Give the backbone structure.
Amino acid sequence: MKWNKIILAIALITCLMHMPYGYYILIRYISTVIFGFMAYKYYKNKKNELCITFIILALLFQPFVKIPLGRKIWNIIDVAVATFLTILFLIEYFKNKKNEYSQKKGNLTFCNIHGAGSITCTDCGMQTEVTVFMHGPYSCEIGRQCQSCGTFFTEHNESKIYHTFGPQTKNTVCPQCGTINFRNGELYKRQDTPLFCPKCKSRNLQYQMEFIS
Ligand SMILES: [Zn+2]
Ligand SMILES: [Zn+2]
C-alpha cells in the first residue's frame, strides 16, 4: 500500500482532463476509501495532524453528499491534493530508506565485537563501558545486555576444562531491573541480538575496543 499515494495523485491529475462523469464518481469513491484508510493508519501511528487531514479529505471527496464547488475549484483541489500526496510519499519514502540504512549500520552484537571497551550512541551521546568477552584459562566474563532495560552487565562462567564454557548453573538476572535474560540449564551462548542504546533504544552504536584477552 506504499504506492497508493502516488497512484491516487496520478488519478486525481487525470480528473483535469475531460472524462466521462462516471469516472469522476469512481475516483471519488476510491479516494474516500484510501483517505479513510490513511486516516486510520496515521491514527494508529499517533500522527494526529495527518489523521485529521485525511479525515477532512475523505469528507471532501465522499460521493454521497455532493459539495457544489464547481469544476474550476475542483481542479484546484485535485492539483493541490495530488501535490500534497506526492510530497508526503517522497518524505516517507526517503525516511524509510534512511531507517533501512541505519539499521544495516546499527548491527553491533556481542558476536561481532571483542574484548572490552566503550560503547557510544551516535544518536543521543550515551557512553558506557562494556565487557564483551574476557577470558582466563578456566573462566571468562561474558557481556550481556538486558533485553528489557538495556543495561550492560557481565556474567561469570567457570569451567573445569581449559578454554571452554562450563554449564549455565543459574539464571542470568539483570542487576538493574531483575529481568531473567537466560534461564538456568539453557545452553551456554553469547548473545547474538543487536545491541541497543539503554537510553534512547537506538541501534546506532559505536564500539571502541580498549582491551582484549
Ligand atoms: Zn542513545
Ligand atoms: Zn534490565
About this structure: Helices lie at 4-14, 21-44, 48-61, 70-105. The mean pLDDT is 87. The two ends are 51 Å apart (CA to CA).
